[in-house]
């Protein structure tokens, strides 16, 4: 079995995965959403402190599996350096004290492998990764054969939801809140510009849309107060535009690449409007669509454990001295 640790952002999570069967034996996650909600976003130092409390609590529950462990895995990049450090420090300590090899896992591969929890890998597939920190199109042929095809020039899809929610003091994470408010709103009231509409490139940008929303909110506030109806209309109009941007670029990608398989992964893949639009695009193009279970879309150690199983099989280990923490990664 492999014990895996995830602490790249605001979720403390540990999983135990059986190597041969890929079965998830144990999985627990303690989310910090509530603690960060008052600040409208993740506060790194607070997140790190909460990991220090949560991770040992979860680890305590895993002690019975220690004699069966063959390796310790941990997310080491990308993410917040201070929070990644907490998971990596625990992994190093376990690796030394239990005398087990260490596996460093790329968090984004984790999001991709959330598709394969308790399942065999399924490649090749094009991946649309939409999370809090990333908006990417990846062509994945295998664990160590992944090509980054498109990414965002600035903010990510999920992040733009978080920022729009913050502008109106709606709480964190913004995705589910904005989606919920948007369901009650008029999506045609505000005409926000779809980003990079004229650009021939397949790339994303969310900061312009975010600023257009900010200006609209300020205009309404200057004219009086922001009513609940205004908030719902802004959410609906923003979400419509945010999804239209992804879809415009995805259609372009489909036109030139005709993928056989497509998967959407990452926390923001929970967005219903996006899921529905992607489902339509796939069915029109005879593309098979794969989604991970909702509970594995956001950060968790089960997906890290699933990657670790594959790395274990090819002896992809790292030493306690060499493991490093990286906030950003260029490509795969
Ligand atoms: P990364 O993996 O890039 O480091 P992350 O792990 O913080 O980022 P996830 O946990 O995968 O990100 O996803 C969280 C993001 O998903 C948040 O930005 C959140 O607002 C967004 N999100 C969650 N649900 C929805 C939704 N229904 N609609 C839009 N965005 C959503
Ligand atoms: Fe993530």
Low-confidence stretches: none
Provide the helix percentage: 40-55%
Overall structural class, as computed from helix and strand content, comes to alpha/beta
Main sheet characteristics:
5 strands, mixed
Keywords: Acyltransferase, Cytoplasm, Iron, Metal-binding, Transferase, tRNA processing
Subcellular location: Cytoplasm
Pfam families: TsaD (PF00814)
Protein name: tRNA N6-adenosine threonylcarbamoyltransferase
Summarize the structure.
The protein has helices at 33-37, 44-61, 81-98, 107-113, 157-167, 174-183, 207-223, 228-257, 272-284, 301-313; strands at residues 2-6, 11-17, 24-31, 71-77, 102-106, 125-130, 135-142, 145-150, 261-265, 288-291. With 332 residues, the chain is α/β, with parallel strands linked by helices.
What does this structure look like?
- By secondary structure, the protein is an alpha/beta fold.
- The protein has 2 domains: 2-117 and 296-313, Nucleotidyltransferase, domain 5 (2-Layer Sandwich), CATH 3.30.420.40; 125-291, Nucleotidyltransferase, domain 5, CATH 3.30.420.40.
- Helices cover 43% and strands 18% of the residues.
- It contains 10 helices and 10 strands.
- It has helices spanning 33-37, 44-61, 81-98, 107-113, 157-167, 174-183, 207-223, 228-257, 272-284, 301-313; strands at 2-6, 11-17, 24-31, 71-77, 102-106, 125-130, 135-142, 145-150, 261-265, 288-291.
- The strands form 2 sheets. The chain has a 5-stranded mixed beta sheet, sandwiched between helices.
- The radius of gyration is 20 Å and the shape is globular.
- The model has no long low-confidence stretch (mean pLDDT 97).
- The structure holds adenosine-5'-triphosphate (ATP) and fe (iii) ion.
- Adenosine-5'-triphosphate is lined by residues 8-9, 79, 107, 111, 131-134, 158-159, 161-162, 173-176, 179, 266-268, 270-271, 298-299.
